[in-house]
């Protein structure tokens, strides 16, 4: 493709995206494609001769769009938001356009140094501890995902716990990891990948009311395991759990970790970015004193296209000890000088994209005030919805709901237990099949709850009120006396 052709088709692609943004509300939120339908629309064999890009754009409309669930739709309330924004999309395009591979400082100094600066900016925007900044012993790095960040944290923690023996090989004995029943599943996955093993993932009790990890039980488990000869590697505390945005007591957990000399990783994948607003900085309590690593996802609620996870460590020595490796073909003068960072040593793959460009674009476009406004809007809409749910005798609201997620369930008269859960799930399926909105569910204390996560930039009060009206009407139509 010549630059001239690129210019022509590039304009068409940008127009395609802008048109999509303009008419996104005309699509059913949840794709109605059946299994195999997209596949059946695609030729079985690749083309022998090249085709014009018009053909790709035509198939985008014909084959791809019917199989798209519209994550940027203002009535998308499922999972957590995965905000895409104009500046992030453009930043992503710039990154693709440069096509650099930033594994080493030397392979594109700007790719490394812009990332260093932007991660320091984000640490400042979130008011994170000074020791996470790159001018101290710690520093920030962009990872692909919160799952990847957790895996990297475990590898660093393991290196610190056993002095590198696990990396060299020949380690015997049991190593343990500490989570709660509310911790994200990526921690168990990482335990499998790191050889700790799922059987050595210790599940700390939670307070049945708040679903927050119990530090006293953590203390007891650590004591028991150490006495039995195990090597405790890492404790994961969560700020804003995936199921209900519950918050573990980071400070109290950190004190336990300190006593036992165990690495504390704080997973704030969804909620961490709320700290752009001073009124949410309480979620950072205990980080400065206790967190060895911390991660949050600008690719959820902070307007930055997937993938962009922000991870910080308080001391990068263990991380580099665990992951740096220097084959001859990567040797270069800049790395040897010690004057530069090589982010390949901070992550699993060797290669890395220039992701900092999109985060930089987002922060510059919105500014701190614009980011705060976005978070505040999501929280305000969620609090308004929660007030409506609380006032409705046909529904039960889960408290607390500090961010943009509201969990609730209809109270089905004459039905309880599993029968009520079945009815709630049926309601959810009908709502999602309507195409008007998309929400998901979770289970708390054995009961099914609907989850409504608000935070798409296009969502307004009218959208949320419309969604709530539809939920009430559907519930009333189904149940004998609810709504
Ligand atoms: C979403 C989420 C994750 C996983 O995020 P990825 O970036 O997709 O790996 C991990 N932890 C929590 C608390 C989450 O909400």
From TrEMBL:
<dbReference type="InterPro" id="IPR015421">
    <property type="entry name" value="PyrdxlP-dep_Trfase_major"/>
</dbReference>
<dbReference type="InterPro" id="IPR002129">
    <property type="entry name" value="PyrdxlP-dep_de-COase"/>
</dbReference>
<keyword id="KW-0456">Lyase</keyword>
<comment type="similarity">
    <text>Belongs to the group II decarboxylase family.</text>
</comment>
<dbReference type="InterPro" id="IPR015422">
    <property type="entry name" value="PyrdxlP-dep_Trfase_small"/>
</dbReference>
<keyword id="KW-0663">Pyridoxal phosphate</keyword>
<dbReference type="Pfam" id="PF00282">
    <property type="entry name" value="Pyridoxal_deC"/>
</dbReference>
<dbReference type="InterPro" id="IPR015424">
    <property type="entry name" value="PyrdxlP-dep_Trfase"/>
</dbReference>
<protein>
    <submittedName>
        <fullName>Aromatic-L-amino-acid decarboxylase</fullName>
        <ecNumber>4.1.1.28</ecNumber>
    </submittedName>
</protein>
<dbReference type="InterPro" id="IPR010977">
    <property type="entry name" value="Aromatic_deC"/>
</dbReference>
<keyword id="KW-0210">Decarboxylase</keyword>
<dbReference type="GO" id="GO:0004058">
    <property type="term" value="F:aromatic-L-amino-acid decarboxylase activity"/>
</dbReference>
